Amino acid sequence: MKIRKVLVTGSSGFIGFHLCTRLLADGWEVLGVDAMTDYYDVRLKERRQEILMQNAGFRCLNDRIETQGLLKEAMEKFRPDAVIHLAAQAGVRHSIENPESYVEANLIGTFRLLEAIRAFPPAHCLMASTSSVYGANTAMPFTETQKTDTPMSFYAATKKANEAMAHSYAHLYGLPVTMFRFFTVYGPWGRPDMAPFKFTKAILEDRPIDIYNHGDMTRDFTYVTDLADSIVRLIEAVPMRPAAAADVPVGDSLSTVAPFRVVNIGNSKSVRLIDFIAAIETATGRLAIRNYLDMQPGDVPATWADASLLHRLTGDRPQTSVQNGVALFVQWYRDYFGV
After folding, report:
1. Between 228 and which of 22, 27, 130, 171 could a Cys-Cys bridge form, CB atoms 3.0 to 4.6 Å apart?
2. Does the annotation count 212 as an active-site position?
3. In angstroms, rounded to a whole number, what is the distance separating the alpha carbons of residues 196 and 184?
4. pLDDT tens digits for 110-141?
5. Is residue 201 within 8 Å of 40, Cβ to Cβ?
């Protein structure tokens, strides 16, 4: 089988690391692009990249995706069969405190990527969106065909903008694009700014954990390797521009005017935050000291994915239970930090 090539932006990030690991295991040649920014401890990113570099099929450019000409030059030289765009400034609350970084990475950076794939088109471009685009929607589970016009944070707004930008390029230039909306991803090598990492760290250090909205929150927690598996399977599900609107299957988010589709990637279960904390307590063997607080600005009380479209396109869907996924994360945390 011919070795295929893929360009992955955000390759040293949490999801990017797991995705590249899976792609390399499947025999892909991977060119990663990562800015190694200091939004959180760079040493974690450096260690992920060191592990990836041990595979001869991986090489990396360490630069910002918004750098003029960077991605276009990389596409011209590497000529990947697929592009997977994960690089972004993440974090709901950080987008309220420092919105300009989201304009640079999420809007300008994505524009640079779209221009690069327009100049050197791959067979398929897959781009990360987020469940945060569902915003104030209350009808659950969330389906890809729901309106997403009420973002609750600037982060969500930039991701909604990415979807609109990508659709326009798909329509104008015939570029096949799949946007995947992921739901509360967790697991080994996770980001220190996210709740699973912060809760585990605090519990093991006998410090209080902050629980917002007084614990009245639910999330569709998705284990990171399940997410990576789903992304890899979606590479082969290339959207095609339909001949007519009537050709779009019921329940499919396929655009009527472009080779463009949006796909949820979630565990299809809405888990109470309190139950997720209980799973961490079981895995650590310690009880949390709980500090209940009001809801934070930009946050939403619940998320829940309808992943039936993902299943129809790939034949699979995420299914790792919270209990198993949390146990694997806590074991990694103990091993990595020696606690």
Report:
1. 22
2. no
3. 10
4. 999 999 999 999 999 999 999 999 999 999 99
5. no
